[in-house]
Write a structure and sequence with these properties.
single chain, about 110 residues, alpha+beta, 4-stranded antiparallel beta sheet, about 45% helix, Uncharacterised_HicB, TTHA1013/TTHA0281-like, Ribbon_hlx_hlx
C-alpha cells in the first residue's frame, strides 16, 4: 500500500484503473476525508488541501479534529514473548520500548 504524509496525517493511496485516477483517504481517523487526482503532483496538492480543509472546518464548527494515533500502544503478549523481547532488547543495548518501536517500524516499513 502506498502512503503520503502531511502534517501529522497519513493517507492511503490507491489507483482506480476504471477512472484512471489516484484516490486517497486519511488513515487513522474515523472521519471520512478523501481526495483524488490524475497525477502525483496534483494528488499531493489535493491531499494537503483536504487536510487543511478538514482542520479549518473542524475549527470553524468547534468540532474537535481527530488525531491519528497518539504513539501510545498497549500490547498483551504471553509471558514467554515478553521475556524474549526484554532479553532481545537488553542484548541490543536498548530499552524494551526502544527495541519494540524499532522492530515494529521495520516490520511496517517506516
Amino acid at each position: 500500500m502506498n502512503t503520503m504524509k502531511y502534517k501529522e496525517y497519513i493517507a492511503r493511496i490507491e489507483y482506480d484503473n476504471e477512472d484512471r485516477i489516484f484516490v486517497g483517504h486519511l488513515a487513522g481517523i474515523q472521519d471520512i476525508v478523501g481526495f483524488h487526482a490524475s497525477t502525483v503532483d496534483e494528488l499531493e496538492k489535493a491531499f494537503h488541501e483536504a487536510v487543511d480543509n478538514y482542520l479549518a472546518i473542524s475549527h470553524k464548527t468547534g468540532r474537535p479534529v481527530q488525531r491519528p494515533y497518539s504513539g501510545n500502544l498497549m500490547l498483551r503478549v504471553t509471558p514467554e514473548v515478553h521475556a524474549a523481547a526484554a532479553t532481545a532488547a537488553k542484548a541490543n543495548g536498548k530499552s524494551l520500548n526502544q527495541w519494540a518501536s524499532e522492530v515494529l517500524g521495520n516490520a511496517s516499513q517506516l
